[in-house]
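Lecture 7 notes. Example A: sequence first, then its structure tokens.
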Amino acid sequence: MGPAAKKSPLQWLANATSKVRQAKRVRTKTKIEMLDSFENAGLGYFWSTDSHGNLDYLSREAIEAGEWKEEQVLGSPISQLFLQDNQAENAGGRSLSFLLAARNAISGHIVRIESGFGDQWWELAGQPCFDDQGNFQGYRGSARDITSERQAKLRQDRRARSCSITGLANRSHILERLTEMLRVFRNTKQTCAILMIDLDRFKQVNELLGQGAGNELLRQAAGRISRIAGEKGSVARLGGDEYLVVLPDQDDRGVLGDYGERLCQMLSQPYSIDGKQAEVGASVGIAVAPYDGVESSELLDAAEMALYAAKGTRKGTYRFYSNDLKLRAKERAGLEADLRGAEERGELKMFYQPIVDAGTYSLKCFEALIRWEHPRRGWVSPGEFIPIAEESGLIRKIGAWAIRQVCEDAKSWPVEIRAAINVSAVQLEPDVFVETVKNALSSTGVDPSQIELEITESVFVGDFEGTMAIFNSLKKLGVRLSLDDFGTGYSSLGYLRNAPFDKIKIDQCFVRGSTEAGNNNAAIISTVVSLAHALGMDTVAEGIESQDELELVSDKGASHLQGLIFSGAVTGEDLLARLQSGQLNYEPRGPEKYRADRRTEFRRIGLIHDDHRYTVLLRNLSKTGAMVDGLLNVPTGTDVVLDLGGGQLAVATVRRSEGYSQGLEFETALISDGSDGLCTRHRVSPYQIEAAGRPLAALPEDAYSAMGGNKIKSAKVKAFLEADIAHREVAA
């Protein structure tokens, strides 16, 4: 045997075991040192929970990073400290609580930490642990502070999802949110309204004041829209000068109309940009889901169609979407094509409405009004074709014809009476317009003092100095200038100080309803009259229809009067005959009291009584009631429901019944659709139609039938007889 005694197998095994244990201790010590080094270096944290999900270990550095105390952390539920981040794109969209409850492995899960230093974001990893018997022991995991990375990503996402000029959400972002919102709302049976906004005449401001000024105006407009939308609404810039407001869980068109009106008013107030003043207007189109569309694209198309309808009416107003707008859009395209040759074909006519002295009712002026006699459609309302002419640029040619025609007519009148001609802002091109007026005056030989140009406030948008130069050139020609529709759109007292107007016209919207209790219109009329008097200008109160309105505007001091109470617009031939006969005074003829505006309709609608639906002829419609023809033996006091179409049901009571005509009073007043129409505040919900067995879709025109109303079998006999008004045939 050698010097060293040979080890026995047991000794060798004991030595080997000792070395393994020593190696394990070294590895464990090294691992602990490495983990300590990892934590101390701020590279990450470690955490563990017990079987109940309460933290039983969290790295000291993590506790310090969260500005917590150890006793408030240990023993607390992990989900109480590690909060869900709804903006984080965690795998599968699962929350931390779900993963813990399911005992799933955790990898790359982002949570939010509320600390005294502000919000932090950590990325978690972890594994569930089990003992030898398979009993769950809790989680062991790590965490990494990714706050800097997260904030950088959020900034990048924000830039990609927002408008760089206004800071609002951009088109793609708002459409993404709207699509998701509508998806959720379909399940919860909620509604959602959108308001699409377009700035009128922004292009002119951008061109005259520069792109920098245009961008500043866009920012200021965005701020105004956001203030009106408030916390309930989401606001985005769609591009150009278009914005979108999303109002969840809102379908009351009374409330939405107020939003639309406030937007139009606020956005038309002057903007101060680099010491200069700029003015634009706004038009708003309103659509509501699911009434006007179920999908986001469908809803946007509806709002856009309503927006174009608002701009086509008179701008500076709002409009609700309705099913007939699709048909009107097609008709509009056809009208534009027909309008291009209307002058050459002799279809345009000049009509004249008198303006009289407020004290004597003697004739002082005629307002010239263009009428279009379409070969197929008959007389087309100026409210339809003038906006088309303005947007297409045809107004320049039509306007030049009108000026020349009025000058020719005025020259032929046997007495010297002024003629007022409406001028669109589109016509006021430097040099060109002044030359047009000059040529008309010289070619006809009419006295320039007989010609009065009525100009709206919208001409002052943008280039104030250029507009004033045009006015001064016109005054040198000897014509008079009148400010039309004062106070309705782009009001500013600044330009009245220098603009050479001879007359201010008080818009009919202030005259109508001015005698009603609680109405501020009378005070507005009084203020405008006082202002005009101080500036040495005449005033014309237009749109007078009733004796009480006439008395009020006369008492308030208006110097001139205009309206149906004296005469409507008449042809040039009828006017000439009156002048030749020497009839220069007008006697006021009209109702004693102002009545709510009634629209002549002449369309067939449904009237529902005791589960029976009758077909009647709607003759006229106002906010408070309607006149219908078609039923016999209807007692006064009978409660009925009018089906006005498009899901609009109006509860009404018969207040007057004569033969086959009934006068109805509505339980709830109708509201303005923002244009010249009326509508109900609420409509039949598409969710009601869905409940009746139909697929969810936008409202059809006959929503009552879609709900199965026409299929209801009633045991009651029809209470009334239906009369065919067209043929005067009575059917049981």
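Example B, a different protein, same format:
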Amino acid sequence: MDNDIKKHLTGLSIPQLLRWRVQNTGDKVALREKDFGCWNSYTWSQYYDHVRKVGLGLSKIEVKKNDIIALIGDNIPEMLFMALGAQSIGAISAGIYQTTMPDEIAQLLAYMKVAVVFCNDQEQVDKIVEIREQVPFVKKVIYEDPRGMRDYKTDDWFMYIEDLYEIGENIHLEKPDLFESFVDQGKPEDTCHLCLTSGTTGLPKGTMLTHKNYISMGLQITEVDTLEDTDEYVSFLPFAWIGEQMNSFGIAMATGITINFPESVETAMEDLKEIGPHFMFGAPRIYETIRSQIWLKIDESYWLNRMLYNYFIKIGEKSATYRMTGKKMPAGLRFKSWLGYQIIFRPLINQIGLLRLRRAYTGGAALGPELFTFYQAIGVNLKQIYGQTEIVGIAYMHRDGDVRPDTVGKPLPDTRCKISKEGEILSKSPCVTPGYFEMPEKTKELLEGGWLHSGDAGYIDEHGHLIVIDRLSDVMHNNRDEMFSPMFLENKLKFSPYIKEAVIFGNKRDYVASLINIDPIVVGKWAEDRGISYTTYMDLSAKPEVAELIYDQVKEINERVEKEHFKIKRFALLYKLLDMDDDELTKTGKIRRKFVREKYQNLYDALYDESIKEKEVEAMFQYQDGQSTAVKTKISFYTMEGV
């Protein structure tokens, strides 16, 4: 893409860019959705038609410039129709995670002063019904799936999206130039979307993002890694997360790629196989899950396949070090690597739908260097990106041939970065937010001195790559004032196939300790192979054989840690998986460390009392219907020898 076109595109709003796409490639497929087993397509022209219907329909129900439209639900084309339809008339879209509970939704709707809520199905509509008295300012609740909505059809507060389309189409027939006049009024500097932060310390903040923010990000990424308008992308990340918006608002509009929507969250990985995307973006948990699936496939395979895999994965790891650094590979190693790819890894990645993948990106949290090497070894070009919601997701990014697993790469082309005296990562870019919605003091802190303050500690290495240490607020010091990063150790632990999640403690304490979640799938298979029977996750995690397995994993990690004060001395296996619904994880899967410590204070105290080998606790479980139950169980605590 030449500079004149880039300059033109950054001078447009997102709806104006959509119109430009229609003028240039109107008949090309823009969106594809799987519904009842069949893939249905929307061209760029059809995409624009639906956006027009929504925009004019919203104007009829008195949605005005700067009004806010909240979107709650799974990823479907209608999510984009509603967002861009609102943006076309000067309103602002805002995504709310579909896992958000009613009380928090009420707080978010009140904070953002939401005028209209769009929900994809009855489950989300019922949440709004539950809080209806708390949100009298909401004019309409628009829904996409009519199943289960019979009781609401006589209430004017609710509107079926097809009725909104009809209203918009009728207005267009009466006033064919009206919508274009709305679109023409858009400016690239206008706020078009509020993206909620992860909310690690409280209620999420609404990050104001402009049309220019998103479009600039799409263009910057493609300067580093070229995308063709024939490329395919699978949309399975939560729409409320900046990572998904970066692709659907930014990259897709800037490059003209096709976005594919799976039939459901549950079928996303199966649908991915049918599409065979050319690039994908996911949080570390996605890649950790895929890796676990690969290991299970190998474990269940014939002995010859296992033997060949174990041999060629070592070859792959050696060749990966050459590919990642751009160095010329020795001929012998190159041949063995090619052979291993053809007979083992190519069929393997084809089974999981990644055969056409040219590049895979991960962000949202740090990923262990070992996981990078694993994917590069099997032929998947996985690269790290680093950024935050307030810069549309990306500031740093690995380049092909310059992938260093312990870093997050170099700045994007139009991004300037530096490290403050306090060690904080700072950035400047056309993608930086104007600030937080109705939070002037927080905005002032965020953009102090004209730089975006990340809140993360890091440094630039001799190759110009950024190394992220941890959140400034999360960096810990032991009783001897020796600094260590809990995130670093958590990532080390999570590289073990048997460990799903880990929480590291040790601030102002004599040693490092951890609460660990086992991976129920991998450990469950491990137990079955050894004839160890179990009933529930709680039962499995309490098995002494499982504790011995995890002990060996922690021991191996301790042996690879150079600094003594980084070593884990005590650990316990938690009786339940950490969960977003229990507020233990953010919506993007980050640990809410302070909350977890306070919730499991009795376990934390026991970790730092070496005389305690076992403790009876009352485990509380909350179900989706709001009911809770208490179960008594015993937790064992383990001390590592020689630490």
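Note on Example B: The CA atoms of residues 406 and 496 lie 17 Å apart. The mean pLDDT is 92.
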